[in-house]
Amino acid sequence: MQLFKGNILSYHNDPGDKELASSYSYFENGILAVENGKIVYCGDQENLPFDASDHELHAYPDQLIIAGFVDTHIHYPQIGMIASYGEQLLEWLDRYAFPAEMKYSDKAYAKMMAKEFTDELFRNGTTTALVFSTVHEQSAEALFEEALSRKMCLLTGKVLMDRNAPDDLRDTPERAYEESKRLIEKWHGKDRLRYAVTPRFAITSSPEQLDAAGRLLKEFPDVYLQTHLSENKNEIAAVADLFPDSKGYLDVYDSHGLAGKRSVFAHCVHLTDDEFALMKKRDSAISFCPCSNLFLGSGLFDIEKATQHGIKMGLGTDVGGGNSFSVLQNLNEAYKVAQLRDQKLNPLRAFYLATLGGARALSLENEIGSLKKGNYADFTILNPCATPLMKLRMERAESLTDTLFVLMMMGDDRCVSGTWIGGEKMA
Ligand code: GUN
Ligand code: ZN
Question: Quick check: 340 pLDDT over 90?
Answer without folding.
Answer: yes
